[in-house]
Amino acid sequence: MKISDILSAENILLSVKAKNKRQLLQDISHLVAEKVKVDERTICDTLQERENLGSTGFGGNVALPHGRLAELDKVYGFFIKLTSPIDFDAIDGQPVDLLFLLLSPESSGADHLTALAQISRLLKNKALVAKLRGTNNREEIYALLNS
């Protein structure tokens, strides 16, 4: 699976504002609901349930919120860049300013795990993350994530 299989340039959300984790999950659920054709409340509840198991903030100011939804027929990815870092209960205690949201069908066990692993590896690359932070150009971010 390639990042381009799950992420389009239109699914890169820039300058997203949020005061806290709960508001961010609500806001991004609202932003992606129409694109994935799933009720925003369902998305938000799914993301919040996953966060209740443990933060998806994996360090380096990056988080990978994710969830499985019965209503989906394919895996969707969204890259999100915040205007200001927020507390995300990350494992390193650092605030988060970059997120990659992954939404998968309930039945996509292997695809979901493969995508999570690939995105995690990508966003642990400090040089790449620095480049992502250094631009607000959607096409450039898309190219960086797919290189």
List key phrases describing it.
147 residues; alpha/beta; Mannitol-specific EII, Chain A; 6-stranded mixed beta sheet; 6 helices; 45% helix
Short description, anyone?
The protein is an alpha/beta fold and 147 residues long.
Task: Give a topology summary.
Blueprint: H1 3-6, E1 12-16, H2 21-36, H3 40-53, E2 57-59, E3 62-63, E4 66-69, E5 76-86, E6 96-105, H4 109-123, H5 126-133, H6 138-146
Parallel strand pairs: 1-5, 3-6, 4-6
Antiparallel strand pairs: 2-3, 5-6
Helix pairs in contact: 2-3
What would you say this structure looks like, in words?
Strands 1, 2, 3, 4, 5 and 6 form a 6-stranded mixed β-sheet that branches. Helices cover 45% and strands 24% of the residues. The longest helix has 16 residues, at 21-36. It has a single domain (3-146), classed as Mannitol-specific EII, Chain A. By secondary structure, it is an alpha/beta fold. The mean pLDDT is 95. Helix 2 crosses helix 3. Strand 2 (57-59) and strand 3 form a beta hairpin.
Low-confidence segments, ≥5 residues, pLDDT <50?
none
The name of the CATH architecture is: 3-Layer(aba) Sandwich
CATH topology call: Mannitol-specific EII, Chain A
Rg result: 14 Å
Cα separation of the termini = 14 Å
Strand segment tally: 6
> Which structural class should the secondary elements be placed in?
alpha/beta
Strand content: 15-25%
Question: What would CATH call the class?
Answer: Alpha Beta
Oligomer type: single chain
Taken together, the total number of domains comes to 1
Largest beta-sheet details: 6 strands, mixed
Shape: globular
Query: What is the CATH homologous superfamily assignment?
Result: Mannitol-specific EII, Chain A
Query: Helix count, per DSSP?
Result: 6
